[in-house]
Amino acid sequence: MYKRVLLKLSGESLMGEQNYGIDNNRLEEYALQIKEISDLGVQVGIVIGGGNIFRGLSGAAKGFDRYQGDQMGMLATVINSLALKSSLNNVGVKARVLTAIKMEPVGEFYSQPKAIEALENGEVVILSGGTGNPYFTTDTGSSLRGIEIKADVMLKGTRVDGIYTADPEKDPNATKFDEITFDEIYDRGLKVMDLTATTMCKENNLSIVVFDMDTPGNLIKVIKGEKIGTLVKN
Ligand code: UDP
User: Fold this and answer.
1) Does ligand 1 lie within 6 Å of residue 73's CB atom?
2) Domain 4-233 indexed as CATH 3.20.20.70
3) CA–CA gap between residue 169 and residue 158 (Å, rounded)
4) 143 lines ligand 1 (CB under 6 A)
5) Pick from 132, 143, 149, 148: nearest CA to 70
6) Closest Cα to atom 18 of ligand 1
7) What residue numbers does the annotated binding site for UMP cover?
8) Which residue of 22, 51, 138, 191 has the lowest C-beta tally within 10 Å?
């Protein structure tokens, strides 16, 4: 069983059935899944995206300056992180939000020792604001934070159940990998995460499990080592 994990949740998944913002049912489903593994004693760090609210690149396409757009995107991840914290608290889980950008009292400014101390105290730690820098993504933020907190694995929760030879939503012949190496991902040009994020994991030997987080009960299965999703390793 994994002892310390970095869970990456996409902002987009938080929309649930809606096409913008935060769906409370989805949020609560996530909180309950996280509670299940936290109750087992697993130390959980979480990075959540902001795509349900704002993405720098789409903002830039509409005429926003990219630098500013990315700052808006990072703030969006903080909004999602606060929502998740509140939902976790509602189901009885202690959680705290650390921010990559100084904005106390919204959340405490991130530092690695602070994050590890909170994890060791059994708190769920939500690492918000991505990396704090523009031109990065929350996937890269989660690679970075996963490495910093010395997570055993990065769990990338998505709406598909793993990595396929092609996009399963477009190609009916696509087949799923149970396991794949980082090198194979490069060779096949698969889009699992952006290359910056993938390379950070490869170079620091942080394995990734890509799995379907939108099916309740899946997170605990991954923790217990059930073979769902796709394992990416060196
Ligand atoms: N972002 C950023 N730096 C980071 C992480 C995120 O500038 O280190 C911005 C970027 O504009 C991005 C937005 O925050 O589009 C939301 O993050 P992301 O697109 O990764 O969210 P997701 O796709 O997971 O919902």
Assistant:
1) yes
2) no
3) 13
4) no
5) 132
6) 49
7) 50, 70, 131-138
8) 191
Which of 117, 149, 128, 142 shows the shortest CA–CA distance to 210?
A: 142
Question: Is 81 close to ligand 1, i.e. is its CB under 6 Å away?
Answer: no
Single-letter amino acid, residue 137: T
Tell me if 14 CB under 6 Å of ligand 1: no
Residue 30: both structure tokens together: 């996530």
pTM of the model: 0.96
Lowest mean pLDDT among 26-30, 61-65, 110-114, 204-208: 61-65
Measured between alpha carbons, how far is 205 from 201 in angstroms, rounded to an integer? 6
Coil, strand, or helix at residue 123? Answer: coil
Tokens of 168: 């399963």
Cα 207 to ligand 1 centre (Å): 21
Question: Side chain identity at 66, as an amino acid letter?
Answer: R
Establish whether residue 23 lines the binding site of ligand 1, counting it when its CB lies within 6 angstroms of any ligand atom: no
Spell out the domain ranges in the chain. Answer: 4-233
Q: What is the structure's pLDDT at 58?
A: 86
- Estimate the crossing angle of helix 24-39 against helix 66-90, to 10 degrees: 60
Note the pLDDT tens digit of each residue in 137-173: 999 999 999 999 999 999 999 989 999 999 888 898 9
What tens digit of pLDDT does each residue of 85-129 get? Answer: 999 999 999 999 999 999 999 999 999 999 999 999 999 999 999
Minimum CA distance residue for ligand 1 atom 14: 73
The one-letter code for the residue type at 21 is G
Indicate if ligand 1 lies below 6 Å from the C-beta of 2: no
What is d(CA 54, CA 11) in angstroms, rounded to the nearest whole number? Answer: 9
Closest CA to 48 of 133, 135, 155: 155
